[in-house]
């Protein structure tokens, strides 16, 4: 397996992998990621083997939302390992690549993880990798939720975590 930065031809490969597992194609999002990488605003790490994309993760040099935005800490965002490659170490290697790059910007890296069951594997990976909740509680649609505030358990309901990089 090889971990490298995204190239433009990866966009179609990633979209095909999403479609193969019944997910929506994300061509515009991926094109924006590639443009942001070109401009130094985001890094997109690709795991590939025999010219096939196994997954990807992005790293923002500075968090754009959530509790770490004001602290200007790097944030890992949009992390996907395609289902047929999960539980094979792909996620660990992608996470390690993003963390190594984050060291350029800070001694701490951050991320937000969804709370519905679809994020279960990611939740376990982050905890096993040393990430800890930041203590700000749960966030919904980029707002910190006060106790008793109604919300929806979707991709916008997240818990923020951080890890010290050594």
UniProtKB/TrEMBL annotation:
Protein name: Predicted N-acetyltransferase YhbS
Record SUPFAM superfamilies: Acyl-CoA N-acyltransferases (Nat) (SSF55729)
InterPro entries reported in the protein's UniProt record: Acyl_CoA_acyltransferase, GNAT_dom
Domain N-acetyltransferase: 1-152
CDD domains listed in its UniProt record: NAT_SF
GO terms of molecular function: acyltransferase activity, transferring groups other than amino-acyl groups
Record keywords, A-Z: Transferase
Protein source organism: Pisciglobus halotolerans
UniProt entry tagged with the keyword Transferase: yes
């Amino acid at each position: 397996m090889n971990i490298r930065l995204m190239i433009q031809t990866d966009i179609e490969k990633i979209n095909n992998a999403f479609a193969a597992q019944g997910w929506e194609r994300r061509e515009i999002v991926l094109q924006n990621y590639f443009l942001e990488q070109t401009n130094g605003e985001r890094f997109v790490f690709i795991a590939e083997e025999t010219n096939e994309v196994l997954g990807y993760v992005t790293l923002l040099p500075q968090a754009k939302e959530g509790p770490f935005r004001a602290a200007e800490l790097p944030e890992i965002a949009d992390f996907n390992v395609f289902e047929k490659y999960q539980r094979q170490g792909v996620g660990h290697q992608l996470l390690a690549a993003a963390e190594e790059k984050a060291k350029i910007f800070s001694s701490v890296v951050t991320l937000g993880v969804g709370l519905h069951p679809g994020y279960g594997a990611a939740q376990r990976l982050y905890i096993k990798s040393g990430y800890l909740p930041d203590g700000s509680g749960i966030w919904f649609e980029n707002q910190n939720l006060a106790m008793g505030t109604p919300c929806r358990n979707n991709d916008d309901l997240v818990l923020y975590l951080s890890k010290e990089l050594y």
